[in-house]
């Protein structure tokens, strides 16, 4: 399998695989530790293919576990520490893992859950044990499962097979031909943007430069690290680069080796492109597009000066060579050039479906018999000019906030679980095209005599136990009733007037 072969190849060199501040790990160490973890898995659970749950953040020992799972023929399920305990429990109940690694010490229910210390013991005890390549995950075996916000109020697991990522590598690795070999790995491992550095970066010998979320929020520390990083390929959400742009220090003097920015996951604004062209005149800015369900990204474009000057939005690119895009109307009929409709993706990188959720899979996925490939209804509205695609927004209630994918109903359903909240309606708050925050209106079960601010603090505290902090609305206001549409649905347009 290309990733594990790539790690073995660079393990023969003295190249670093991972750097996080003062901590670093060579490819040789990464290979040895992942091999040890795989040996433990194979010995403890012979023949077992259940995905391995890994609960943590940016621990150095996390990737050896992920790669170790793959070497033992298993998928890994990364869960970030931003996910609160209740939600972790829901995911774990769905996966039913036999083996798990818990870097946070909160307790993961599996037959064997290793703590960080126990994992170190495994690395020591099994060091030098070779795992046969025949044990490695391959073909239609699951590679990883990423849980993302679900409109039912519970996260849903996107399953990605080895063949999906192999295809992604074949299609996208030509875009990574950089002069250097250090890649920024900003996103948490539970977000699919991280798959780019963690799979393609590692397979092609890049040194991943990573840091904890807290470092990303501390400019002095972040810029001091970036300044020493020698990064040549920048991979992040536009939101993260935008945040960096709020400091004048973010320019080519800070990152002299940088030759390309690769963005994915949300709208790349003209403002950000203009800033980057000015601050990094020698670097390419590449916009890419794709949902987790299609393995990170399926289209790409190098942003030109003409695109930056154009009144249209920055395009999301041309589909990668193997990928077919279709713009369809509500009845599934293909629309001609220039007309806006739902974007369908047909590709070897499209997932088989949601983990143990045939109902949700059926709704969003299909098989294109003619092409013999899997297809996905993105829920994104788009149009094309020639073979260049332009994103227009969502046709449902899924949004992106600071790069995070959120189903509005997920927030609403969890708000309704908070004590004394009967019903909830959540609205995104826009600044131009960009969503800056969420605001919620709630109907209480009974009057609580609290001031609005006091109540909001109380509700938010409870809500944080149910959903990640990035999904918690900034403002929460109690109302007597919701305005309704003619067919008795909450009239969100009217509700917006209360903002
Ligand atoms: P995720 O599964 O977190 O990658 O989110 C996928 C969704 O993010 C897509 O369906 C789009 O709505 C949005 N998205 C991804 N890339 C872009 C892009 N380049 N421009 C605009 N929206 C994007």
Helix/strand/pairing category: alpha/beta
By CATH, the topology of the largest domain is Rossmann fold
Q: How are strands sequenced across the largest beta sheet? A: 11-12-13-14-15
Q: What does the overall shape look like?
A: globular
> What Rg is obtained from the alpha carbons, in whole angstroms?
23 Å
**pLDDT averaged residue by residue:** 96
Low-confidence segments: none
Assigned CATH class of the largest domain: Alpha Beta
Q: Span from first to last CA? A: 53 Å
List the helices and strands and how they pair.
Blueprint: H1 2-11, E1 16-20, E2 23-26, H2 27-44, E3 52-56, H3 62-71, E4 76-80, H4 85-95, E5 99-102, E6 112-115, H5 116-125, E7 142-148, E8 156-161, H6 162-172, E9 182-185, H7 195-203, E10 207-210, H8 213-216, H9 219-229, E11 233-236, H10 238-245, E12 260-263, H11 270-279, E13 284-289, E14 299-302, H12 305-309, E15 318-319, E16 324-328, E17 341-347, E18 353-354, H13 358-364, E19 365-368, E20 373-385, E21 388-394, E22 398-401, E23 404-407, H14 408-415, E24 421-431, E25 434-444, H15 452-463, E26 475-478, H16 492-496
Parallel strand pairs: 1-10, 3-4, 3-5, 5-6, 9-10, 11-12, 12-13, 25-26
Antiparallel strand pairs: 1-2, 7-8, 8-18, 13-14, 14-15, 16-17, 17-20, 19-20, 20-21, 22-23, 24-25
